[in-house]
Each structure stands twice: as structure tokens, then as C-alpha cells.
Amino acid sequence: MAELKLYTDASWMSPWSFHAIVALEEKRLTYKIETVKFPIPPNQKAELQGRALLGKIPILVHGDLWLSESLAISEYLAESFPAPAYPRLFPAHLGDRARARQVMSYVRTSLGALREDRPTSGVFGRAVEKPLGDKAKLDAADLLRVANALVEPGKTSMFAEWCIADADLALSLMRLIGHEDPVPQHLIDYAMAQWDRRSVRRYIAHLPTRS
Ligand SMILES: N[C@@H](CCC(=O)N[C@@H](CS)C(=O)NCC(=O)O)C(=O)O
Q: Ligand 1: distance of its center to the CA of 186 in Å?
């Protein structure tokens, strides 16, 4: 099998690198990590663009393929290393799978003000001492509405089994939880259940660097 390599941010704060590493870990794949410092120096940016088309982190390298965009990466891993030989990343049920993709799209294309006011440094590092702005408050209310609709009290996954969208939704909730913004207890429990997964624990411990 061709070697797998992931270009990731040297700060370990990128939510999109988090997604790609959790996907690799959940699939129990062996891979190498190449860290990139931000801002990406112009020469390196041009080289990454030349190889991966879009020179943003994360980038997965598998044989001749250089692929950026976290969702493209998890889809590629799901199809290259399919169930049942490898653990699932996406729900088996078609409707649930579509819903999972909807949630992953939502956390990337909405919630911009929340991402701005509640950066992942407050999740993986030190919380920022800044009140939520008005736009971020609206984002937070919408995120909680969506999460409440998808996560039943007492459940640790949106669907019958864990999927990669649970990691994304939990990270969005952790932006609030890490900054001690109000979040219903069952959603805190749901997010903490994701944080207790081996894949997420290995990401937080930066363990992939040692594999
Ligand atoms: N939509 C992309 C976003 C990737 C992205 O924005 N990566 C940022 C780090 S979080 C990056 O590479 N920034 C450096 C740059 O744009 O030069 C994904 O899901 O992977």
C-alpha cells in the first residue's frame, strides 16, 4: 500500500486538520505527519498549490495524489479503506449519511462569527477573554438549535453509530464549552464523549507525530 502522509498545521489548532487526523485515526491507518508553519511561506504555498491544487492545510498525500479540503480527504479515506475491512467514517444509512454531510457542510460554511470569537485555541489551548459579539451570539444560538435537534439527551452520537460528523459537531460545541459559554448539559456530555474517543485523545496529545 502507498504511504499516507498528512500535511497539518504546526500549531495543532486547525479544525480541518483535526477532522482529517480523526478520520485517519478512526480508520486505524498508519500515516506520517508533516507540519507546516503559518503563515505558509510563499514558496511553500506555491509548491503545495502546484501539487494539491489548493494550498491549504490539511493536505493528504497518497501515492501520486495530493488532496486538500478536509471533506474531500475524509470521503477519499472512506472510499479507499471501506467497511467492513476498516471502521466506518460515515453512516451506513443513506439518509443519515446525507444528514452527516449536511452537518459537516454547515459547520464549515456557517458559524463564521462564532469561529472568529471562539477560536480553537480555546479548545486546544488557552481560552480567549472576550465576550461573544452579537453575530457570534446568533451563531451560538443556531448551533445549539441544530445540536439539540440532532442529539437526544443521553446519546453519544447523532445517529445509530459514531460518525466523523460527530467529531465536527463536538468541536463546534467545544468552542462554547471551552470558553464556558452556556451549553445544555446533555450537549456537553455528548461533546465530552467525542473527546474521550481514542482518535480525539491522540489528536490532542499530538500522538500522530510519533507514529
Ligand atoms: N475548507 C478547507 C479549509 C482549509 C483551511 O482554511 N486551512 C487553513 C488552516 S485552518 C490554512 O491552510 N490556512 C493557511 C493559508 O490559507 O495559507 C478545509 O476544510 O480543509
A: 31
